[in-house]
Each structure stands twice: as structure tokens, then as C-alpha cells.
Amino acid sequence: MADKEKDNVGFAGTIERTEFMAFLGKSMGTPCFVKRVKEYEATTCYLENKIFKGIGRYRPDKDTIEFNPTHPSFPDTVERRTAFRLHELIHRMDHMVYRSWVNVEFLYAIDKAKIRSNSVFDTVLEKMRPLLREDQMAVHDILSALRGKNDGLAFGHRVEYWTSDRRHVPKEIFANIGTLDIMEGMGLTVIKRYFVELFNAYKEMVK
After folding, report:
1. Nearest CA-CA partner of 93 in 134, 135, 42
2. What Rg value do the Cα atoms of the chain yield, rounded?
3. What is the DSSP letter of 94?
4. Which of 6, 114, 176, 205 is a good FRET partner for 162, with 20 to 30 A between their CA atoms?
5. Do residues 156 and 141 touch, judged by C-beta distance below 8 A?
6. Ramachandran class of 30: left when φ > 0, alpha when ψ lies in -120 to 50, beta otherwise
């Protein structure tokens, strides 16, 4: 078996590709996007990297998703590992197909959402409080991207991440909305209500 094929058999020994594909087969997310996720999953190489200081990342230079199962914050449930896997897989798809960071409509929607984020911040957090951790992580990270910081958020990237590369904001927002879409997360309902321009721009990209 070739190395790339072997790498694709499992994901940190926790969720097999067959299980992940079965999950995708049941998803009621945007049909054309679900279909494309399946196609890209079949060609994605996952590599364990215990030296990497983070949980995981997509590396465009090697077209590989690296993950560190020894990281103390590595997802500890199937649902969280599925969300993590989806998030990184969508980063790969974004790099190869969608290119969110140069999509004018998506960037315009982000600018509008940035303005709105301050006025709805507390309301969105309150709406997210009873939802699953996977939903909270995605929505909190979107808020973090819009506000350029993670103050008052349980999850989200630090300000240094957002300021280090302007492409990080659209990339992370796209990956988080896509993950909510495929997983049918209740967090997507919150995004549709309070940041409808973001959701509509995402739908235009993936249709």
C-alpha cells in the first residue's frame, strides 16, 4: 500500500475514513458542497506529526493535513474529531477551489459583519451558551475573526494570528461556516440570523 493510501486509512486511530464517509452520506448540508467534500476527502493525505505544537493544520506546500494526537487539546470525542477533520478538509478545498480570500462578495460580507459584530456580540454569546461545544467553537472563532481578538470568548484565535496574515480572516470564517453547514450545527441558525450576509455569500460560493 502506498504511503498516501496508508495515511488515509485512519485519523489518529480514532475515526476511520469509512465512518467519516458514512457521516457525510447522512449530512443534510448544502448538497453540492457535501458532494465536493466527499470527493476531496477521498484524495486527502493525513499525517501524524507529534512535533507540531498545535492540534492540526492544512499545509498547502505539502497538500497535507497534519495532526498531533498528543496535544492536550486534541478533540476527545468522535463529534469533535469530525468537526476538526471537516474544518481542516475545508481549508484544503478553499485553497484548491474556493479561494475565499479573493472572493469580492465574501470579503464585502465580512466587512459588513465586522460592523455588526459589536452590536450583537453579547446576544450571540447568549444564544450559543446552551449549544454543543462544536457549535460554540465554530461561532466563537467566527466572532474572533470579525473582531480581530478573542476577548470574552471561550474559543478563537489570538489577535496575533489575525494580524499576521489578512487571509486568515476569510479562510477561518469560510471553514467554520462550512463545518456548521455539513454538521447541521445549531450554530448555523445563529449565523443565519445575526450574520445573514455571511451565510448568503458562503452559499453563493459553494452552490
Report:
1. 42
2. 16
3. I
4. 205
5. yes
6. beta
Residues 106, 200 within the same domain: yes
Q: Are residues 57 and 117 in the same domain?
A: no
The DSSP element (H or E) to which 48 belongs, if any, is strand 45-48
Instruction: Tally the domains of the chain.
Output: 2
Between CA 166 and CA 143 the distance in angstroms is 16
The string of pLDDT tens digits covering residues 78-119 is 888 889 999 999 999 999 999 999 999 999 999 999 999 999
CA distance 12 to 116: 39
Supply 23's cell numbers: 457521516
- As beta bridge partners, residue 64 has 45, 59
> Has residue 184 got a pLDDT over 70?
yes
Determine what percent of the chain falls in helix, strand and coil, rounding each to the nearest 5: 65, 5, 30
Neighbours of 130 (CB within 10 A): 9
Is residue 109 domain-shared with residue 76, that is, in the same domain? Answer: no
User: Would you give the distance in Å from CA 80 to the centre of its chain?
Assistant: 12
CA distance 164 to 81: 27
Identity at 103, one-letter amino acid code: N
Task: Answer positive or negative: Cα dihedral of 17, 22, 28, 32.
Answer: positive
CA separation for the pair 32, 69 (Å, rounded): 31
| Dihedral of alpha carbons 188, 157, 45, 73, sign | negative
